[in-house]
């Protein structure tokens, strides 16, 4: 089986979730009930976010590549970024890495395509909601992607940065985001919502929304485990 490399720490909660969910899914799939071989390389979330906010994408790519190269030295067969945000430089990383990298957005797009969704919304950090590259595979294939307005984006970003990144789920924050989703349903006529932040699903782990939820982390993990068993 292929050995996985996870570039994590962006933030810690999602990295823990990646490990837990990958290990469980792998164990279910392995005929002997084994756990997967993998290595986790942690980078500094704040340094990564600093490059994003300053739009210093060359420095961001260079910083992340060092982590990927460390994973290569650990003997992994392929690697993933355990966060949506750093995928803004995914194309550069994919070109310069010496091992395959699995993108977080592509499997979510494929699942949405199979479900026949034509209008959706992207919820995530302020950065990902404002960057066109995260919506590219959807838009290029005829799926309309709405995003919250500026005030709503600021609220969601604050909740992610100050609460969810630390594993904190506050009911008032959840109600506020529920309200944003409902407005998008009413005014943008969205048929689904993309949880484009690996921490957002923490808020909806035991809850249902009035429309389907496409969790980028969930579909990424499925693709990762399938790839580990791929001949």
From TrEMBL:
Gene3D superfamilies, alphabetized: 3.40.50.1860
Keyword terms, alphabetized: Isomerase
InterPro entries the UniProt entry points to: Asp/Glu/hydantoin_racemase, Asp/Glu_race, Asp/Glu_racemase_AS_2, Asp_race
PROSITE patterns noted in UniProt: ASP_GLU_RACEMASE_2 (PS00924)
EC number(s) stated in the UniProt entry for this protein: 5.1.1.-
A Pfam family annotated for this UniProt entry: Asp_Glu_race
UniProt-recorded Gene Ontology molecular function terms: amino-acid racemase activity
Superkingdom: Bacteria
NCBIfam families: asp_race
UniProt cross-references to PANTHER family, sorted A to Z: ASPARTATE-GLUTAMATE RACEMASE FAMILY (PTHR21198:SF7), GLUTAMATE RACEMASE (PTHR21198)
Similarity-based family: Belongs to the aspartate/glutamate racemases family.
Protein name according to UniProt: Amino acid racemase
Source species: Diplocloster agilis
